[in-house]
Structures are given as structure tokens and as C-alpha cells.
Amino acid sequence: MTEKELIESGNMKMDWARNHMPVLAIVRKKFEEEKPLKGMKVGMALHVEAKTAVLVETLAAGGAEVAITGCNPLSTQDDVSLALGTRKNICCFARYGVESQEYYEAIDRVLDIKPDITIDDGADLIFKLHTERTDLLPNILGGCEETTTGVHRLHAMEKEGALKMAVIAVNDAMTKYLFDNRYGTGQSAWDGINRTTNLLVAGKNVVVAGYGWCGRGVAMRASGLGANVIVTEVDPVRALEARMDGYRVMKMADAAKLGEIFVTTTGNRDILTAEHFKSMPDGAILANSGHFNVEIDMEALASLAKSTRTVRHNIKEYDIGGRRINVIAEGRLVNLAAGDGHPAEVMDMSFANQALCVRYIAENKLPNGVHKVPLELDTFVARMKLQSMGITIDELTTTQECYMSGWECGT
Ligand SMILES: NC(=O)c1ccc[n+]([C@@H]2O[C@H](COP(=O)([O-])OP(=O)(O)OC[C@H]3O[C@@H](n4cnc5c(N)ncnc54)[C@H](O)[C@@H]3O)[C@@H](O)[C@H]2O)c1
Ligand SMILES: O=c1[nH]cnc2c1ncn2[C@@H]1O[C@H](CO)[C@@H](O)[C@H]1O
Ligand SMILES: N[C@@H](CCS)C(=O)O
User: Following CA atoms 334, 337, 338, 344 in sequence, which dihedral angle do they give, to the nearest 10 degrees?
Assistant: First the structure.
């Protein structure tokens, strides 16, 4: 495609996404009228695709100057990246398939604008700010973090006294993780796996590692597609929930022998290792949906392999002597590296939270540390989403409010 055609394609994807993000549209309208981000510079590292582009446009509509790059080497959509770069007050440095050096150089280019506010997905930008670019910290009003793994990193920094700025954990808003992590990942991980493999899920043994918000979505949709779902966990309560939701629960060492498709969603490392690869059935398919590519031990798999070959676009087969293991998208998050990411209606809520939190940071002086999304913003997003879906709900009567807050009434 020529550059012009790529830009057209990116614009078309953005139009489609924008038309399916009604809550973000409400926020954008207010931003256009009130310009709450006038004079602000926002530096971002997120998955650069159409829904993210609509968030970037919204911030620019609020008066901000925005610079953005990717947060994963395989999730950028180049057509959207180019289209975004044509917009006024928006610079985009993301490119698909970058090596590590270019990935981090692009983060430096974002930081070169000297941002007042940052938005991260995975905390790579904040990490650079706290290591090589500490000179920029005094200028920072605060940041937002999109994902569970990023929030974990920030809590670890805070615990060690290393966090030198305020960050809002957008991931932890109810209107984020209950929908994005669960229904978003549940649908888009399978979209990525199915479009990449073109194989049947029904009747297969699917192993889901981790029964957190992403894991329960992935297990629920696997079950809906007719799979026999096995869950692995380390948390006894979550393991119990998985069992009572109807799934088999066992150690990965046992599940590895049975699984035909494996999906990791733990946010942890070394979930699938050499020990497991050696006992998997021939033809097993491995996908990761956690943020970083550390859940499947790709180095161990590569060193076990007698040979490797590409067997289909985005699928690499590792022949480990008599059994072949297939890995989708190099073990990088499958919904974005082998698909289009979460559905627009889900990112609508996640990114409405992001835009509202950026405004909150611009208008309030927050102390250093990890902050919750203010409840009123979280509730606003839920109300606007319901409204956009044409759903109305009941309200408490005064008598009910009184009853719920009292203790006198019994049998
Ligand atoms: N692909 C996506 O679009 C997407 C969306 C949201 C979150 N994420 C990422 O997915 C990961 C999980 O997010 P979440 O919100 O579900 O987190 P979560 O904390 O709710 O769930 C993770 C679960 O994994 C379990 N776990 C940890 N180590 C394990 C091990 N060794 N074996 C088995 N289970 C283990 C934990 O006990 C926990 O229940 C994070 O990396 C997050 O950033 C990805
Ligand atoms: O399509 C998408 N566009 C932008 N971000 C996405 C999309 N799908 C999922 N995530 C975000 O990626 C994070 C993990 O890295 C998740 O927390 C989710 O919010
Ligand atoms: N489109 C941008 C420049 C890209 S770096 C602008 O005109 O502000």
C-alpha cells in the first residue's frame, strides 16, 4: 500500500471505532467545549490502533499536545499510526515489528516533548522516566496506568520508595477491569487465536493459566465455544471459584499432558516451561494474553527445538523431537499481536476513564504515589454506558435509603 492508502485505511478504522465509543464521545464533546487540557502536553505509550487513536484525538480535542508510541513491539497498526500523525497537535512514533532499541528510542522521543501528564500501558514510559530521564520528573503532574501488570510495577516502586510521581491506576476502576479484562480479553483473545489458527475450539482441551479477570473471561468464552476447560491457579480462592464455575482445576504439570490449546493470563513469568513443553501432546497450540511475553518460556522452547518453521501467518512451529509445539505471535499478547485488540465498546469505557483521569490530574494536585480512580468518575462512566445502551435502572426511594442505612428493623 502507498502511504496515502495506508492513511486512508487508518482513517477508516478510526471512524469505525469512534462510531462505537459513545461514552468517549460524550467526554470529547465536553473537552471540545471546555478545553480542560489547554497548554498541557501528554506523553503516551499504548497499543497504537484505532481505539487508542480515538482516545488520542479526544485529548487533543481537549486542548492537549500529544506524543504517542507503542507499548508492545507487535501491537502497532501502521496505517493507524500514520493517520494519527497527520492530526494537528499529535505526533506518533509507533511502528509495527520494532526491535528493542527502536522501541525504547521511540519512548525517548515521546519524553522529548517534556510531558506534563503521562499515560502508560505496562509502565515502560514511567520506568524510563525514573531511570534515564529523571530530569523530566519535576515537570510531571501525574500519570495514568492502563493495565494490571503496570499497576503491579507501580505498587512495587511505591513500596521501595522509588515512585516519584502521582499515578492513577486506571486498570483498577470497576468500569475498566470488570469489562475490559474479563469480557474484552475473553472475546479478543479467542478472536486472535481463531483467526490465526482457523481451527475448531469445540471438543478441545483448553488450558487457561490464571483465573483472574482475564482468565475468567478466556475460560468463559472457551466454554461457550464448546471446549473442555482446565484452569491452573496458585491462589486457593480463585482455584475454588474456577472449580465451582464448572472447570477442572489442576497443576500445570498435569494440565500440560492434556491441553490442546494453552492460554496464559497470569501477568507472571515461567508459566509454561521446558518441563511442560516436553509433556504436551503433539500439535499443541500456545498463546499468551498477559501483558509481557514472559509467561511462555520462549528461550527454553527455542533451545529444545530441533527445528522451527512458520506454519501459518503468525504461527511458529517448534519441533522438539517427535512433538510439535505451535506458538502464536511469538508469545506476545495474542489479542493485539494476532488480532485487533478488544472490541470498541469495551475500550470505550477504559478510555473514557483514561480521558477523565487525565483531566483530573490536570485540575487537582495529587501527591506522589498510586491513586485510585475517583469513584464519581467510575460511576459516571457506568451511567453514560448504560445511557448509550438505552438502559434505565431503578433509584432508591428515601425510605429504602433510610432502611439500608439503619439497624432497627428486624424480623
Ligand atoms: N490481553 C489483554 O488485552 C489484557 C487485558 C487486560 C489485562 N491484561 C494483562 O493480563 C494479565 C492478567 O491480568 P488480570 O487483570 O487478569 O490479573 P489478575 O491479577 O486478576 O489475575 C491473574 C491471576 O493469575 C494467577 N497467577 C499468578 N501466578 C500464577 C501461576 N504461576 N500459575 C497460575 N496462576 C497464576 C493469580 O493468582 C491471579 O488469580 C496482566 O499481565 C495484565 O496486564 C491483558
Ligand atoms: O484494542 C486495544 N487497544 C488499546 N488497548 C487495548 C486493546 N485491547 C486491549 N488493550 C489494553 O491492553 C492492556 C494490556 O496491555 C489491557 O489492560 C487493555 O486495556
Ligand atoms: N501532526 C503533527 C506533527 C506530527 S509529529 C502536528 O501537526 O502537530
Answer: 90
